[in-house]
Automatic annotation (TrEMBL):
The keyword Transmembrane applies. This is TNF superfamily member 11. It comes from the Eukaryota. GO terms for biological process: immune response; response to mechanical stimulus. The keyword Lyase does not apply. GO terms for molecular function: cytokine activity; tumor necrosis factor receptor binding. It holds the Pfam family TNF. It comes from Lates calcarifer (Barramundi). Belongs to the tumor necrosis factor family. CDD domains: TNF. SMART domains: TNF. The chain crosses the membrane at residues 38-61.
Length: 268
């Protein structure tokens, strides 16, 4: 009985010793996972690559990156060939300091509408008369104008043009007490336009440059209209003159949109 009691106490002691004793196995030291540095490094490399690609695209679009392949030099892209003249023009403008065109850069030219306040006699209507033009409503640059004539101030090759419109109507007056203007026979009317060139080389001799027109058969009571237009190139010298003659000038339409005269220099 005593032996059994001693064995029980020994069992209790061994149990306590086991619980309070040193561990037989050392605990495994917890190590920090190794995948985190690898993940951070991968993200950093991807970010750098994205930044580098963005910078490369930006430089390419702004023209700082140009791929040159000597083997395909004759076959240059169409876009590059088309943009070169524009770029060269911009470079030239920068070199000139953005200088605007001066009066010297503009070619000689003139455009004159018919003078509104003028009357032509019906007597001798078949005789050609020189038309007077309006300076204030037209213009002449590096050309002069005197008494119906354009004066050439600079030699060169010019394009000369003229247009004249004729109209005729004979409506009865609104007031029956007023005398009706005498009718004119317009059943066989010649409406001719002539453009002359006075050459200084031939001592001011008038040379016929152009001629056009028609013989009109108009009704003497209703409204009638006809226009003649012509133009051509001609070599002119400084001091030459140009003018326009018409038959039946009293029938001219005195509106500048229909009757005008002009010239412009095209080259030397």
């Amino acid at each position: 009985m005593a032996a059994t009691h001693n064995e029980y106490r020994g069992y209790l002691r061994n149990t306590v010793d086991i619980e309070t004793g040193q561990h037989r196995f050392h605990p495994v030291q917890s190590s920090e996972p190794t995948y985190r540095p690898l993940l951070f490094g991968t993200l950093a490399v991807m970010g750098l690559l994205q930044v580098a690609s963005s910078v490369a695209i930006l430089l390419h679009l702004t023209g700082y990156l140009q791929e040159v392949d000597l083997s395909t030099a004759p076959h240059r892209p169409i876009e590059e060939v088309q943009t070169e003249p524009v770029l060269n023009a911009l470079r030239d403008t920068r070199k000139r300091g953005g200088r605007c065109k001066t009066q010297r850069d503009i070619l000689p030219s003139a455009h004159l509408p018919i003078k509104r306040h003028q009357e032509y006699s019906k007597k001798g209507e078949e005789r050609a008369i020189t038309i007077d033009w309006e300076e204030t409503h037209g213009y002449h640059h590096r050309m002069d104008y005197q008494k119906g004539k354009l004066l050439v101030m600079e030699s060169g090759f010019y394009y000369v043009y003229a247009k004249t419109c004729f109209r005729y109507y004979n409506y009865p007056p609104e007031d029956s007490s007023q005398a009706r203007s005498p009718q004119v026979d317009v059943s066989n009317t010649q409406l001719i336009q002539y453009v002359y060139h006075e050459s200084i080389k031939q001592n001011g001799k008038a040379l016929l440059l152009m001629k056009t027109g028609s013989t009109m058969r108009w009704n003497d009571t209703s409204y009638n209209m006809y226009c003649a237009q012509q133009g051509r190139g001609v070599q002119l010298e400084e001091g030459d003159a140009l003018y326009v003659n018409v038959s039946n000038a009293w029938m001219l339409d005195l509106h500048g949109e229909g009757t005008y005269f002009g010239a412009v220099k095209l080259g030397n």
